[in-house]
Design a protein that fits this description.
By secondary structure, the protein is mainly α. Among the domains are: 131 residues, no CATH class; 128 residues, no CATH class; 39 residues; 63 residues. Helix content is 63%, strand content 5%. The chain has a 5-stranded antiparallel sheet with strand order 3-2-1-4-5. A 3-stranded antiparallel sheet has the order 6-7-8, with no helix packed on it. A hairpin with a 2-residue loop joins β7 and β8. The longest helix has 23 residues. It is flat, with a radius of gyration of 33 Å.
Length: 654
């Protein structure tokens, strides 16, 4: 499988994808994307390619030459989903790309799939437009393979019809791989009744997936990059149910129970646990309760459990009261038996414990940790993480940072889940820290100088927050917001500044400049190696911030670095180095400066800078050195005369 040209590094591939993702996001947000700085920077990255770069397209992901997923920004993932919908298997860019060509290409991708197919497919449309710098290669339809054989015509027609003709907008969104939250938004945003839309989506997605999953032949549905899960869209659609308003959920539940004899709705109900169904008990109609008990009885025929076991909590109010009385009687019997023994202290302790008030936040925190520990299925674990993320986002948008910290720490501090689930949690944090949410935190916590509450919150997020914040920093155009993000990044990276090292060579210079500031703000010695590597960065504005951060971290030990900066090719860097040297408190700084002058290796303009710095410090050793230069009475060298004049001028100011 193609992914990158042989000479393309992983870093270059990721940089290209990040640039294309930024350009796609800009195209989606602005009517004139070509006039936006973010779009221009993305074009600069693509035009800087030394050779063509080709990347594979998966369902919502980009793939490298080994078929492995390449981590990219959210904008790039959205673009990958659109490319996949258009049956594009590979995408190639080269340095001849222009802003106009990229905008025209995005216009093709943003066009409806049916319209593009009528024109012969994405490859044909892009080729007909004659776009320079971008090429696409289409994949074939799904391949159903049985021992290398081909499907008969009837099977082929079955498959194509199922995926190409979804009429329910929300069902189509699920099949494209949209997020459950976005699917719920589609359900609620249409012209039809939301319950009708959801019910239709259940039926349409099941009707589409079932023929593919239940073929009589032992076949495996494959794309070139791996096995296809034909039920994935159906499951994602059902997960969107939990993001609908309570009233819509109840309406859907009542209607599905009425149609439980329809296999499509029985499969829908089968996705819920007894506890999840129990939550609907207080609000279901009497008929709904009866239907749910009937469903439980039907389900019990296929398991060893009784209907009561399957639907714990779904009994009538009379049965519930009877159970409460039975439990109370048993507790009373135990307590009576114990009271006849010499256990009065235990009973007093038990009574005191029962009278304690309940800390519901702590209870929720403990429950969340327990769920993350015990959920062994990825889809269930993913759902818990989404519930957690939704709770944190609501608290952040309500400016309740202290409560948000409790739930962030519950998941990220001393994790209760296994190491192999860390990637799912990383995705959850990325969803929490969307640019909109980060801006709301910044606005609520002091603008460009976030308060202690915000800094503590991002310290709790730790390394999980680094990637979304760096990605936000790369596209944020508001200077005040950028300054605030550097503060939040410093708090997140404080415990381990080395986590930023990978970003120091894969981002545009303006991002690296801000990361140099962040490394200084961590106040950690571990940040020094990364900053040292940036001393040779080609952009002078990066080198200026590196010097400032190194002085903040190394203090007087930064003096040798500052002296070397006086020989930098850029005047701004030399001025910054000189200014920082004047205030440096190194005990032997004057000796180091005098030694550099004595070696006579400095460029004249640098040597004069050193002479002026010695004069401004006004130390005994500095004055002696200046006097030696000032006492040179006669010289044919203009350079020596310049040094003498500078020394005399510095002495005159003392």
């Amino acid at each position: 499988m193609w992914a990158a040209e042989p000479d393309s590094s992983v870093g270059e591939l990721k940089a290209v994808l990040d640039a294309v993702g930024t350009a796609w996001t800009t195209f989606s947000l602005y009517p004139d994307p070509g006039s936006q700085p973010a779009f221009t920077r993305a074009i600069d990255v693509l035009r800087g390619l030394e050779s063509a770069v080709t990347v594979g397209i998966g369902p919502g992901t980009f793939l490298d030459d080994s078929g492995e997923e390449v981590e990219a920004r959210e904008g790039a993932e959205r673009l990958a989903r659109e490319l996949f919908v258009h049956d594009i298997e590979f995408l190639r860019f080269n340095a001849s790309i222009s802003a106009e060509a990229l905008i025209e290409f995005f216009g093709v991708i943003a066009t409806g799939d049916d319209d593009i197919r009528e024109e012969g497919g994405a490859h044909a449309v892009v080729r007909a437009l004659g776009l320079g710098g971008v090429e696409v290669f289409e994949r074939g339809l799904l391949s159903f393979i049985e021992g290398g054989g081909e499907l008969d015509d009837a099977d082929e027609d079955d498959e194509e019809g199922g995926y190409a003709n979804l009429t329910i907008a929300a069902a189509a969104a699920a099949q494209r791989g949209e997020d459950p939250v976005d699917i719920a938004t589609v359900v609620l945003g249409g012209d039809s009744d939301p319950a009708d839309e959801f019910m239709g989506g259940i039926e349409e997605l099941h009707t589409t997936a079932w023929p593919l999953a239940a073929r009589p032949k032992a076949m495996i549905a494959t794309l070139r990059q791996g096995e296809v899960d034909v039920w994935k869209g159906f499951r994602t659609f059902i997960e969107s149910f939990f993001y609908l308003p309570r009233s819509v959920q109840l309406e859907v539940m009542e209607r599905s129970l009425e149609r439980v004899d329809d296999e499509r709705h029985q499969v829908f109900l089968d996705q819920f646990t007894g506890a999840e169904l129990s939550a609907f008990l207080p609000d279901l109609s009497e008929q709904g309760r009866e239907l749910l008990l009937g469903y439980a009885e039907l389900a019990s025929f296929d398991s060893s459990a009784s209907p009561a076991d399957l639907l714990e909590g779904l009994e009538s109010s009379r049965d519930v009261e009877a159970k409460r009385m039975a439990v109370a009687a048993r507790v009373s019997a135990v307590v009576t038996d114990v009271s006849q023994q010499d256990m009065s202290d235990t009973l007093v302790s038990l009574r005191d414990e029962m009278e304690l008030s309940v800390d519901y936040d702590e209870l929720a925190r403990a429950t969340l940790r327990a769920l993350l520990e015990c959920e062994y299925r990825d889809d269930r674990f993913y759902r818990v993480v989404r519930v957690w993320g939704g709770r944190v986002v609501r608290l952040l948008r309500a400016s309740d940072l202290s409560s948000a910290r409790v739930f962030v720490a519950a998941v990220l501090s001393d994790p209760s889940y296994s190491q192999d689930r860390t990637g799912i949690v990383h995705e959850g944090v990325a969803r929490i820290l969307s640019p909109e949410t980060v801006r709301s935190v910044i606005e609520a916590s002091g603008g460009s100088n976030p308060d202690e509450g915000a800094l503590d919150l991002f310290a709790d997020f730790g390394v999980f927050a680094v990637d979304p914040l760096v990605q936000h920093l790369a596209v944020e155009e508001d200077g005040q917001v950028r300054r605030a993000i550097t503060e939040l990044l410093a708090a997140s990276a404080h415990r381990n500044p080395r986590v930023l090292d990978d970003y120091l060579h894969q981002q545009p210079w303006y991002v690296i400049r801000n990361l140099a500031i962040v490394l200084g703000k961590t106040d950690r010695e571990a940040a020094v190696p990364g900053l040292r590597r940036l001393l040779s960065h080609e952009e002078y504005r990066v080198r200026v911030e590196v010097l400032r951060s190194l002085v903040r971290l190394m203090r007087e030990n930064a003096a040798p670095i500052l002296i070397r900066s006086l020989a930098d090719d850029n005047e701004r860097v030399r001025q910054t180095g000189a200014s920082l040297l004047r205030s440096n408190e190194a005990a032997d700084l004057d000796r180091m400066l005098s030694d550099e002058l004595a070696k006579e290796r400095l460029r004249p303009e640098v040597a004069i800078q050193v002479i002026k710095i010695l004069g401004s410090r006004n130390t005994d050793l500095g004055r002696e050195t200046l006097k030696r230069f000032a006492s040179r009475r006669f010289s044919l060298s203009s350079q020596t005369r310049a040094f003498r004049d500078a020394a005399r001028e510095s002495l005159a100011r003392l």
